[in-house]
Please model this.
Amino acid sequence: MPSSTPIAQLSLDFDSLRRVYQDGTWSPSCVIDELYRRIERARGDHVWLHLVPETRARETAVKLERARSGGAHLPLYGIPFGVKDNIDVEGLPTTAGCPEFAYRATRTASVVERLEAAGAILIGKQNMDQFATGLVGIRSLMGHCRNPFDPDYIPGGSSSGSAVAVSTGQVSFSIGSDTGGSGRVPAALNNIVGLKPTPGLVSTYGFVYCNRSFDVAPVFALTVQDAADVLEVVCGYDPKDIFSENVGSVALQTDSGSMRFGVPDSAALEFFGNDAARSAYRESLDILRALGGHEVRIDYTPFADAGKLVFGSAFIAERWMAYHEAIDHHPESVHPEVRSAIEAARHYSAADAFEALYAQRILVQQVAKVFDSIDFLALPTVPTIYRCDEVERDPRKLNANMGYYTYFANPLKLAALSVPAGMMHGGLPFGLSLVGPAFSERALLSVARRIEAQVDGYLGATGTRARAAHRSPSAI
Model:
């Protein structure tokens, strides 16, 4: 029997869309019409920088409907998505949050090509911290989006628009970029899932890079299984990406059933005075224990040291390679904190670059020993959340605080995801990060599904209740 849900109230999680497509209540072209109505109602919220023309998106939907009726296999049939505006889509501008940097793309990123081939429908390109340099979501001279739970608070960055668009029901999922936490921090602050794959698992060809040697393409989604379904489509070797790993699905770690989770010793646990976040973290660890998990205290030092490499070493020169022309020729168009962070590259030498590479390698070896005694780390995704005006008064320190639990993951070549783990006092969301060894995505997703079922909260900021029971996991 067709669903009676009005389209204006339709949730965009994959299950809901697949049901209405299957029973004939709504078609992808009808959903596209509704999404553009939603986006129009939210005009001025600074979530989108460039939209695919509505007529073009609807034409794509109609073509997919015909292909589906002809028997085509489309695992993401009719699922709408967006991408961060440092990801190329042929014919659309790429600005990386800076109009003076803008160019019209003549290529399409590999990840977008794979998604469209699977039946997903691109809606447009989303706002971001300028040059993907920030974790707060308000480092923009063009206007920034707001946290949907409280507009006085930051949305998280740098993939701010990508997370807000999913949380508020404007797309089903988004692809962002993550160098130091940009696929996890905004996920946590918007009550959605942020899946950060191991560097090299998903192609970053067609991205404007920050740190090409360890940038990744994260997935923002309403549910853990939705993120897993997207990862299944986009992962895999890409010869156009020089850092792509030809690992094959066999190399991905499966869930062993073990639940030894690492927690930093009390001296390293930091919430910067946010007692609500501390309490929420304790409650999330209680969930893991109730699921049969065994807590192991670990030395957080090598993780913290690896995090310092992102902005405190010659690795910053990789950002300089991407953005120095805009900074040199249009300094007034670059956010002061972004410019300051990237211009730090001027102080490093070639010898410093090798020192950073050696330090990275040593830390990778040290952390590998930590994972001999645990299956994954269980960390707060962010230690706290700040008001926008607080960040404006102390932008550098507070931005750095947001990355305390995320900066290290990519330099150490680890897999990670942030899963909603309830609400803090005051009605702001809390996210728990699961961090595992390289290519442990399957195992992390399995644990995250169990947490999600226990929390059984809401999907983003949509007000739609999450279901305790979820689909059987797809093989990744």
Q: What stands out?
A: The chain has one domain: 7-455.
